[in-house]
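User: Can you predict the 3D structure of Chloride channel protein? Sequence below.
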Amino acid sequence: MEMGMREPFLRRRTMNTASQLAVVGADVSPIESLDYEIVENDLYKQDWRSRKKVQIFQYVVLKWTFALLIGLATGLVGFFSNLAVENIAGFKLLLTNYLMLKERHREAFLAYAGCNLILAAAAAALCAYIAPAAAGSGIPEVKAYLNGIDAHSILAPSTLFVKIFGSICGVSAGFVLGKEGPMVHTGACIANFLGQGGSRKYHLTWTWLRFFKNDRDRRDLITCGAAAGVATAFRAPVGGVLFALEEAASWWRSALLWRTFFTTAVVAVTLRAFGEYCRSGKCGLFGGGGLIMFDLSSTATSYSTPDLIAVVFVGAIGGIFGSLYNFLVDKVLCTYSIINEKGAPFKILLTVTISLLTSCCSYGLPWLAKCTPCPLGLHEHCPTVGRSGNFKNFQCPQGHYNDLASLFLNTSGDAIRILFSSGTDNEFYISSLFVFFTAIYFLGIVTYGIAVPSGLFIPVILAGASYGRLVGSLLGTICGLDKGLFALLGAASFLGGTMRMTVSVCVILLELTNDLPMLPLVMLVLLISKTVADGFNRGVYDQIIIMKGLPYMEAHAEPYMTNLVAGNVVSGPLITFSSVERVANIMHALKVTGHNGFPVVDEPPFSDAPELCGLVLRSHLLVLLKGKTFTKDRVLTGPAEVYQRFGAFDFAKAGSGKELKFEDLAIDEEEMEMYVDLHPVMNRSPYTVIETMSLAKAAVLFRELGLRHLCVVPKTPGRPPIIGILTRHDFMPEHILGLFPQLKHQN
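Assistant: Sure. Here are the predicted structure tokens for Chloride channel protein:
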């Protein structure tokens, strides 16, 4: 009864079976729900009674220590990823530039496209053969995990490895993608790795680590990891905390706010320390590495009524473009899923094809641009000497530059920096900005979905910045705002139109640019673009979650749920156990079903009448059967014998891939006829709702409490003590509308 089977992107089924398939990264994977509820059984209560103050202190210290380690590790990974990207991409661009200066244009293209193809194929091979879950942004998967959805590969060590190196190769290959989304996934993977609760295989079984063998504490660590990822990617520590609060986390509390803030502060200090080291020129082609990536603080910001009208226009059109972006990404992902299903070679072939298309656009389109004489009185070289700069020579004669080449033949970060730069009103032709905007807009759409770690933030910022600068150039005679500020507002409008985040994006952009006077205009643009885009479709991450088939629980119930009650959607047949159950019955239930929770009913002689006394988890039954605490007669054994045989942490959740499976049990025929007392291990206080409760209320309760199972009990006496269990699947629109097709017209 766990969740229903759905085939992502393709036809949907609504059979209420025990597992579900969803797309994780670029591959179909079985998923389950997480156990965020505290199982208050006898062992748990005994453990808390026996805990000393020093153990509670150890637990608190360890939580803060893990927050420190997550911030430190994520910051280090982010720094070395930047270091690798800047040096690999820098070498490629220097080689291309050198060959162009020698007028060996064909060799320059072959070198440029060849480097991109090799890097793209390497990234695709890593994703296709080692960790398919590492493909894509990773933010939808992390968001789903924090909502209570688990797949064994979402946060696996192999996913972490491929996410880091695949992202380096993908960004260096010149794809229109960013490493910001993958950094969020990387931070979550690091947090999950630290929160595994130790490993017997590698002799890491320190007693303190056992406190984290549960989904609740891992959830908090992964929230810290997601915040650290944003803080690392954008060098925006406060923005990272707000991103986790606004977009990633489904449950939040003040204690978690403190720890995420501490984690992102550690990230900021780590990046600052290594950035100072790079200022001495010891990091190769890597730049200074300051915390402010695109400093606009020196730009004078003053605006009038015509400027505000232009800002409203930028926000409204940005919202339309953002919603169109989401619509096209949806269509592209559906198409790519058909190709990706054919196997790893087709994933690599698709990636290589998009790489060749990107290389042709990046190298070929600048040939359409006119050569522009270098402006006088510049503080930098023109044409640019070296890898990055505003004035790429490309095919132009000495003393001239190619404005399109300056945008295309740079890393994404440098291109954004050029577009954001102030005092450069006449640096770009309107035609060049239009060509660049069109190319980046559509390349970003067709790139997302290939088997490469790829973020959406940078493509959206890049397209938005070029759009904003284009609008600023068209309105140059009407508005007094600097073109670089228009680029910032354009980027904000695109982020609001695609991501549908407001507070976190606003703070991230301000931390990126160090331009606090722009706060009112950025807020206005974000609010307008989000409002406009919401009239067309969902945010891009919510849309991807639906397309991937992840059963995400929204914070609000659907309107049609108010017309149903909890009893309408429970599915059967319901399998229950007696409080003292025959081993053979339990073994049969575990074998023929994939259910993860079973109601336990007390019956005479253990009670006067049948009554629901608890809920026992599948994982706990496996441990109990493995321990073989059986009796020949159907009698209560009491908790004492269980306390001697087991500890509370024997029933704690194992790390990735370490859980006990049904196949690990070895029960002989004699033991099959014996009995086992379930009282010590069952949750004696499961959450229950009456069958007549509104389904909308039940859905909100289920989501807010982070439940995996919600027992439905009858309203009237004289019936069985439980009529069903609500799981995540039972609240999904596919299941409900499959049972009640007439509600489709009311939705």
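Confidence is low (pLDDT under 50) at residues 1-19. The two ends are 25 Å apart (CA to CA).
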